[in-house]
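Researcher: Here's the sequence for the chain we discussed earlier.
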Amino acid sequence: MSDSSSLSQRSLLGIRGLTCADLDLIHSTAREFKDVLNRPIKKVPSLRDFTVANLFFENSTRTRLSFELAEKRLSADVVNFSAAGSSVKKGETLVDTVNNILAMKVDMVVMRHPHPGAHHFLASKVDVPIVNAGDGTHEHPTQALLDTFSLRQSLGEDLTGRNIAIVGDIQHSRVALSNIWALKLLGANVRVCGPHTLIPKHLSKLGVEVSHDLDDTIRWADALNMLRIQLERQGSEESVRFFPTIREYTMRYGLTLERLGQSSKSLTIMHPGPINRGVEISSEVADSEHSIILEQVENGVAVRMAVLYLLAQKRG
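Model: Thanks. This is the structure I predict for it:
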């Protein structure tokens, strides 16, 4: 891998703060690593003798597995930490927990945390690169990086002027905010679509369009990124106040093949997962030729390899 360019940041705390050049560098590096992943031997020695700690204070399946696989494909040593049953449950602070792990000569920390801003706080206290794997309802930068990487593969390298819609529970989604920052950096037109109650009032100030009409959004868009309803962040009783029933939500905002037929374009359909089939997206759409959902998963490993590799070069 070429080291002629480097990231402007020593940690990946969010998309906000990155430059367009940073995104281009991450994506170009990810393309090289994707080639590696398609070889018979899917491993390179780029991070040999480098130790990465995965600290997950929230449950995760896809993101955690993707990071762990990315680290192992780079030949890094991997330490996995789960808050369940750990000293955190006994009252130990986040900084003390991380410093104890770093004392074991860990070189980088990948962390998911339920509290927005936890990564910025930790980065001010420790002297190793921090990768944000999700912080509450705030940001999920590597998801946005892989989503924009996937869009560039599907729609073309230049996203300037392309119409990208993010549909669903915007209010409780960390994916939405990171995608908005990344897409705006790349020059795309961004629209969010969903019920009034699931779209934050401040979003229009970020330079995005706001719509509550999925059919109109389908006719406008080149690509749709469908988000699930974040029931675990709403609470079972509170969720009733956001929309009357799941059935009504699906009728108004569920993506079906019939609805897709309104578009004069061949739309690209995305989803960060997990998919709730029959709610925000039908099985026919999720499994159709329009869908790049599984490509997003594949691209996620390559993009996270790129992020880890580039941050390791900054540390070196």
